[in-house]
């Protein structure tokens, strides 16, 4: 564990050193680290619109994806209190800090957890949207370390946690979620917006 901790520190300090030499990246990465969650929300909305008249299984996945994000974040909160890891700027003096200082715990990263769950949830729906989210998630993870809000293992753990919750939950719940989506589609009000136009079982993923 000591070797892993040393490697974690070394990577963090290397990224922080890179941040010192790239002042032109400060503003965009600060903005993305803080407001990039909006991009993930937009991708989830696009996914729902993309499959709203497609196969019921994909519509169910589009409904599950945002639920998985919320579930992953709910699981992440007690984990943060369990590990109670301090933020990098609380333990490393003299580093460049671009993040807004907070008393929240560092491990795992909420932002990375959200990003990981969104990326995996979207991969269940559309390869194109899913891989767009994977790239966005990787950038979010890097940005959170770049601004010194997290250590590398904080964001890596968050990405893995989010992805596991989204994928594992879908494996367990896809049958009842698909049945629920089919039932909801049969209702007059819902049917007007989400009536399927694809043949049952037709693959609509891009």
From TrEMBL:
GO cellular component terms attached to this protein's record: plasma membrane
This protein's UniProt keywords: Cell membrane, Hydrolase, Membrane, Transmembrane, Transmembrane helix
Entry-linked InterPro entries: PAP2/HPO, PAP2/HPO_sf
Record GO terms (molecular function): hydrolase activity
Signal sequence region: none
Domain Phosphatidic acid phosphatase type 2/haloperoxidase: from-to ranges: 56-170
Transmembrane regions listed in the UniProt entry: 32-49, 129-149, 155-177
Annotated SUPFAM superfamilies: Acid phosphatase/Vanadium-dependent haloperoxidase
Localization in the cell: Cell membrane
Pfam families assigned to the protein according to its UniProt record, in alphabetical order: PAP2
Membrane topology of the entry: Multi-pass membrane protein
Keyword Methyltransferase: no
Stored Gene3D superfamilies: Phosphatidic acid phosphatase type 2/haloperoxidase
PANTHER family for the chain: DECAPRENYLPHOSPHORYL-5-PHOSPHORIBOSE PHOSPHATASE RV3807C-RELATED, SPHINGOSINE-1-PHOSPHATE PHOSPHOHYDROLASE
Record protein name field: Undecaprenyl-diphosphatase/undecaprenyl-diphosphatase
Species the sequence originates in: Oryzihumus leptocrescens
């Amino acid at each position: 564990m000591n070797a892993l901790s040393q490697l974690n520190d070394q990577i963090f300090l290397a990224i922080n050193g890179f941040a010192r030499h790239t002042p032109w990246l400060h503003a965009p990465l600060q903005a993305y680290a803080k407001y990039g969650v909006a991009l993930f929300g937009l991708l989830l909305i696009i996914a729902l619109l993309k499959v709203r008249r497609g196969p019921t299984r994909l519509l169910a996945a589009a409904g599950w994806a945002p639920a998985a994000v919320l579930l992953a974040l709910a699981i992440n909160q007690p984990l943060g209190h369990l590990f109670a890891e301090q933020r990098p700027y609380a333990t490393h003096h003299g580093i460049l800090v671009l993040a807004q200082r907070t008393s929240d715990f560092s491990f795992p990263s909420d932002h990375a957890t959200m990003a990981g769950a969104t990326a995996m949830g979207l991969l269940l729906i559309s390869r194109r949207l899913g891989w767009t989210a994977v790239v966005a998630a990787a950038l979010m993870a890097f940005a959170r370390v770049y601004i010194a809000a997290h250590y590398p293992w904080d964001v890596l753990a968050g990405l893995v946690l989010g992805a596991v919750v989204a994928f594992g939950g879908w494996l367990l719940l896809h049958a009842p979620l698909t049945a629920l989506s089919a039932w909801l589609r049969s209702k007059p009000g819902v049917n007007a917006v989400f009536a399927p136009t694809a043949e049952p079982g037709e693959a609509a993923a891009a």
